[in-house]
Design a protein that fits this description.
The chain is α+β, with helices and mostly antiparallel strands and 111 residues long. The chain has one domain: hypothetical protein tt1805, CATH 3.40.1530.20. The protein is built from 2 helices and 5 strands; from the N terminus they run H-E-E-E-E-H-E. It has a 5-stranded mixed β-sheet with strand order 1-5-2-3-4, with helices on both faces. A hairpin with a 5-residue loop joins strand 2 (37-42) and strand 3 (48-53). The longest helix has 14 residues, at 6-19. The radius of gyration is 13 Å and the shape is globular. The two termini are 23 Å apart. 21% of the residues are buried.
Length: 111
């Protein structure tokens, strides 16, 4: 099954967050078709998490983008990790969402 483009997926994610009353912003626009998407979750309690694409070995072949936890720490450490990811892949997308409940609103895999 074909997967949605990164551009379309991010647009839908931002709209859904706004519909649900959450603050979510696009911090960096990546490659429109297939750029890797990272989501930073700010829990507004001095903790944050970074989610990135799940490895293909952990994802199902159903066209749904799945994510895995990259880092769960303080916002400064998460920003440092984002900077490292950007040095590795300049075409990545970065979305930031604020949610006190700690729910990133992503399809997650364990791993």
């Amino acid at each position: 099954m074909a997967r949605l483009t990164s551009d379309f997926w991010v647009s839908a994610y931002l709209r859904q967050a706004a519909h649900d009353g959450l603050v979510a912003v696009l911090r960096r626009r990546g490659a429109a078709e297939a750029g890797a998407i990272f989501v930073k979750l700010d829990r507004l309690d001095r903790t944050a998490a970074l989610y990135g694409p799940a490895p293909q070995s952990l994802a199902e072949d159903d066209g749904i983008r799945r994510f895995q936890l990259v880092l769960d720490s303080d916002p400064g450490s998460v920003e440092d990790r984002v900077a490292r990811e950007l040095r590795f892949d300049s075409d990545l997308w970065l979305v930031e969402i604020e949610n006190r409940a700690g729910d990133p609103r992503l399809d997650l895999v364990e791993g």
